[in-house]
Amino acid sequence: MKKFSIFMVALAIVSGQAFAGGHKALPSDAADEQVLRIATSSAGENSFIFTGLSGGGDHQNWQSFLWVPPMYFDENKELQPGVFNKWESNSDFTEWTFNIDSRAKFSDGTKLTAQDAKDTWEAMANPDSRNGRIVGYIGNVQGFADAREKKTDKISGIIAEGSTVRVKLNNPDPIFHWRISTAHMNIVKGSQAKSGINYWKPENNPAFSGPYVLSQYNPDQNTATFTPNDNWWMDEGPYLEKITFQFVNDGDTLAAMFQNEQIDLSMQQPSPILKKIMPDVFEPAPRIGFNSFWFNVGAAPTDDPMVRKALVLAIDPKEIYKAAFPKSQFESVMPRQFMDPNLQCYDDGIVYYDFDPEAAKAALKASSYGGPENLPKLRVTPRATWPPLKRGMEYAMEQWRTVLGIQNVEFKDKPQNFGGDSGKVNVSRDDVAARFPDPAVYVFKGTHSTGPIASGEMMRAYKNEKIDMLLDEAMMVEPSNPKRCALAHEAQRLFLNDWPMIILGKPLESINRRGYVKNVYSGPDIARHAPWKIYIAK
Questions:
Q1: pLDDT tens digits along 309-333
Q2: Structural domain count of the chain
Q3: Contact by Cβ (8 Å): 504, 290
């Protein structure tokens, strides 16, 4: 623990304040006991892990307790410093310079350096890190492609110079600093980042830069404990003496735990039934991104655009939305495009995909298969057990049967359940993950041939050269220029004309906490930001 002077201790006693975990003085309305009980369930695959290298997964919810991101967007979508306290670019946005806060250090007392940043991002570039979204963050950096392909373990365009990180880009990017402002880009101690994926386990003596450290971890019981970082380096917090963490893979159980006063905060959405009983638990937290079903353009029969068109037009957008998110259970919105409604140039007047059974039948007849009797098997998966996704998929399957006569459909909860045929999955689910409020990047991630949706497991090598050209141009336009939005809209239009997806709907997300848990903030990034400010009020 940090040592305080006798004068500081006396001052705290006189003012009626206490010290939480030997750190900063508590707010005046703080309770005597500062223990926060957190629970979470899984929105997708159970991933009760604490690595700082892997973007996505359930663990992205709690990474910010253990590591401070380079920068972050707050609840007002304003950019705030994190490990980096200064940033600037050259005139053509091809080189960026970031300065590390001189106070920044790890829980073992060592300084956080530019070399740590370089080592971490190089480790993230290695596909073994399972950071599938890293391409969207630093894929434009010189030398990234060679590191991603394992031709080298270095990224030539990241230069570490003491407390300064210089980044050289292949192409101009006026918002590169936004891209790395996420908990997905947390800087891990370099030697640990490159040591292997289990460096974060307590028995391996991991070093953390955040307000708390992982002091206990029991994967068999799905429990963990966070305690204060004795070498916390910011001027505020941490206020909590201990955080107990329990992974509960069921929304109904989470709701019951709230009702039974067993937990104070949940990282995932508990059962919507709880909202009728305890409405104060749900604090709105508008985020960017929502789940959709994507067609694999590299596997028969969805490699045929007319088949994709038939499958889309056989679905009533209003009905699949209601099936996935019934009003009795969910507050949600029904976007008619894949651009998120929380983005500033979202246009309610743009509508894609209406229910048209006759056009669906005509499209299937015009396909290379000529009709349902010649179609090979369709393999579909929501990649999760979350009921809204399963209900949406089941509705789609029923529509294909009744409208198009397609009977040969195989459903599995997760792609790996198809065994050796996992690469042949035709329809699967994912969200377009954007951690900052830029519509052009959101569209890029969903449509560009190098983006995670088009090039990854969802679409398997989708490419439209016109879309790539539009978005490559958009990436060079500053966010304040209206042309950036116009290019994004045109790319979206061309993309949806290729019949690449089925749009579900978007549940309205919330911060789920009891009223006495103060300063729980959520912005565009899914991780809670500034968790060092959280405390328990009386």
A1: 999 999 999 999 999 998 766 778 8
A2: 3
A3: yes
Torsion 270-274-275-278 (CA) sign: negative
Which structural domain, as residue segments, surrounds residue 295?
A: 291-507
Residue 259 lies in a domain: yes
Average pLDDT over residues 4-28: 50
The whole-angstrom separation of Cα 441 and Cα 436 is 9
CA distance 525 to 509: 13
Residue matched to tokens 């996704």: 389
SS3 390: helix
- The full DSSP string for 416-428 is GGGGGGGGG--EE
Overall size of the chain counted in residues: 538
Residues 323 and 394: beta-carbon distance below 8 Å:
yes
CA nearest neighbour of 329 among 338, 339, 321, 341: 321
What is the sign of the dihedral through the CA atoms of 171, 172, 176 and 179? negative
CATH of the domain at 143: 3.90.76.10
pTM (predicted TM-score): 0.79
CA of 85: how far to CAs of 103, 104, 169, 244, 441, in Å?
10, 10, 21, 31, 24
Q: Cα–Cα distance between 161 and 26 in angstroms, integer?
A: 37
